[in-house]
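Milestone 3.1: sequence recovery, worked example.
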């Protein structure tokens, strides 16, 4: 059976009301407790989780219902000078200055990952075995740090892989939306509709939701349409489920 992996990005007190709306929307389509929350420990250095106990209590409640917490950077803000023209291009075009882990040195990346995992685990009361870099942008130093820290899974635009083994767990592009301007909204709507037939054969389809997606009525309507359709023939799973040998075999078969 085909699977659906839904993740909510930028889980931070800054977006508390939006995140509750998204959680309610997912519950409406049978995904209550069956999504992955990408948690930012201190969004933009202005929203430390520990300073917002009401939000942490809500998030802990979601985790107790089955939601999977994953570490999503630390500050979600790129403060490092880009080292190459390629990194500068990706930092400008793929994110609005939020590619935090694109050019971090190894020791800095490792320290933030260790501190972030410890903080999130302490606050939500659950193990954190996965990492997703802000804007899905990784430098090699970050990949090396995740490997050395034996993370079970990480994700970029094109795949989910196991840093601890180097093996790809699932391939195929993620379906996501962008709301920064009209051009990006139009492109998101086009991709969302085109991805239906294009990605139908994927054993696992990944759908990523960002807090600002629901600020645009057209995106919210399209997201509801997509969720309703996907839940007709796909079973929701979490990132941690991707270590299943059967799913790995299916992913290898599709890629081959």
């Amino acid at each position: 059976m085909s699977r659906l992996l839904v993740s909510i990005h930028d889980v931070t007190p800054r977006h508390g009301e939006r995140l509750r709306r998204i959680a309610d929307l997912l519950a409406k389509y049978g995904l209550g407790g069956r999504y992955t929350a990408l948690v930012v420990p201190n969004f933009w250095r202005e929203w430390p989780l520990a300073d917002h106990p009401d939000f942490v209590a809500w998030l802990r409640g979601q985790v107790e219902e089955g939601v999977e917490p994953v570490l999503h950077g630390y500050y979600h803000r790129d403060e490092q000078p880009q080292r190459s023209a390629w990194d500068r291009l990706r930092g400008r075009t793929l994110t609005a200055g939020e590619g935090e882990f694109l050019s971090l040195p190894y020791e800095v990346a490792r320290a933030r990952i260790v501190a972030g995992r410890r903080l999130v685990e302490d606050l939500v009361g659950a193990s954190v075995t996965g990492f997703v870099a802000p804007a899905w942008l990784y430098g090699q130093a970050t990949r090396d740090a995740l490997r050395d820290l034996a993370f079970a899974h990480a994700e970029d635009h094109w795949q989910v892989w196991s840093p601890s083994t180097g093996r790809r767990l699932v391939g195929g592009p993620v379906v996501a939306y962008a709301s920064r301007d009209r051009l990006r909204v139009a492109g998101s709507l086009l991709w969302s509709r085109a991805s239906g037939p294009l990605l139908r054969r994927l054993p696992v389809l990944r759908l990523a939701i960002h807090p600002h997606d629901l600020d645009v009525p057209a995106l919210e309507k399209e997201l509801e349409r997509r969720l309703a359709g996907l839940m007709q023939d796909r079973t929701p799973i979490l990132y941690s489920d991707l270590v299943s040998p059967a799913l790995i075999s299916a992913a290898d078969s599709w890629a081959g």
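The chain has a mean pLDDT of 90. The two ends are 19 Å apart (CA to CA).
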